[in-house]
Amino acid sequence: MKRWVLITGCSSGIGRALVAACREAGWGVVATARQMSSLEDLPPGDDLRVLAMDVTDEASIESARLACLDIPLKALINNAGYGQMGPLELLRPDELRAQFETNVIGLHAVTRAFLPLIRHHAARGEGRIVCIASVLGRLSIPMCGAYNASKHAVVAYAESLRLEIGRDIPVILVEPGAIQTEFRSTLMKAWGDLPTRVLGTPYHHALETYRSQRERFAEEHGMPANACAARILKAMSAACPPRRVIVGFDSRGAQLLHRVIPAGLFEWALRRLYGV
Ligand SMILES: NC(=O)c1ccc[n+]([C@@H]2O[C@H](COP(=O)([O-])OP(=O)(O)OC[C@H]3O[C@@H](n4cnc5c(N)ncnc54)[C@H](OP(=O)(O)O)[C@@H]3O)[C@@H](O)[C@H]2O)c1
């Protein structure tokens, strides 16, 4: 293979869909996940390398980097991430820290590890760094402060990185709305004892409304993961890649409304929607 892309978080969802899409488009793919067992069902081939990588574990990032020294790595897709829900008033600092460790610090650690390899193998303008943020990196919703903050940080990170290296290696920021993946079931695993913590607080109702709203919306209107992967691949393959890729009518619509309607009205609508 002449060009390889490394993707984080390939056990499910967008990462998993990207593996198939990139391979079909002729890329060699380094598919990474925390548990190797979660990658076992990927069809083997000369165009696939599977590696264990936890983005919060520097040693596993370094092992993965060493295992990529013999391939022409030209692109990185920073996809791994999860959502930590919960009202900020009840959120433990450790929960916020863990959210940033994965979604922000982990993304940075991986980028920093693989950027020199991409620089080495890609001609000017040929390499790609893709960062998966979210519509919640551009606007915020209640009950989701930790995740909102982490994705706003990813937006700022990608914009800063682009200013610094973008002429050599284009940086593409992806801002999806609701995508049909494991995201929402993982979200409930990351809740821990939150459901009992909110009992008897004014947030009890809002959290339940949040959970059912988001689940229903994603089921009814969410974009399939492979359609999202196709959008990302198209942007990555473009000769002159876009700076931002807004994925989904919900992401586009919410960002437009956020820009054009008065802030007070926007807040009122969100509070009503989420029962705060
Ligand atoms: N689905 C949506 O509606 C949506 C919308 C906007 C943005 N996004 C973003 O899209 C990205 C992919 O999410 P998804 O929707 O595809 O959800 P998903 O199906 O839950 O996939 C998330 C992936 O990230 C991995 N991951 C989590 N923590 C990790 C860590 N410390 N190290 C390495 N991998 C880790 C998970 O691996 P494990 O199996 O090991 O946990 C999984 O492979 C995330 O950054 C998410 O924030 C999703």
At a glance:
The chain is an alpha/beta fold. The protein has helices at residues 13-24, 58-66, 93-121, 145-165, 183-189, 194-197, 203-221, 225-237, 249-260, 263-274; strands spanning 4-7, 28-33, 48-52, 73-78, 128-132, 171-176, 179-180, 223-224, 244-247.
Describe the fold and architecture.
- The protein is α/β, with parallel strands linked by helices and 276 residues long.
- The chain contains 10 helices and 9 strands.
- The strands form 2 sheets. Strands 3-2-1-4-5-6-9 form a 7-stranded parallel beta sheet, with helices on both faces. Strands 7-8 form a two-stranded parallel sheet.
- The longest helix has 29 residues.
- The protein binds NADP nicotinamide-adenine-dinucleotide phosphate.
- NADP nicotinamide-adenine-dinucleotide phosphate (NAP) binds next to helix 1, helix 3 and helix 5.
* Shape label: globular
Give the topology string: H per helix, E per strand. Answer: EHEEHEHEHEEHHHEHEHH
Structural class: alpha/beta
Distance between the termini: 53 Å
Bound molecules: NADP nicotinamide-adenine-dinucleotide phosphate
User: Tally the helices: what do you get?
Assistant: 10
State the helical fraction: 40-55%
The largest β sheet comes out as:
7 strands, parallel
CATH superfamily: NAD(P)-binding Rossmann-like Domain
CATH topology: Rossmann fold
Strand runs, count: 9
**What would you report as the Rg, rounded to the nearest angstrom?**
19 Å
* CATH classification class: Alpha Beta
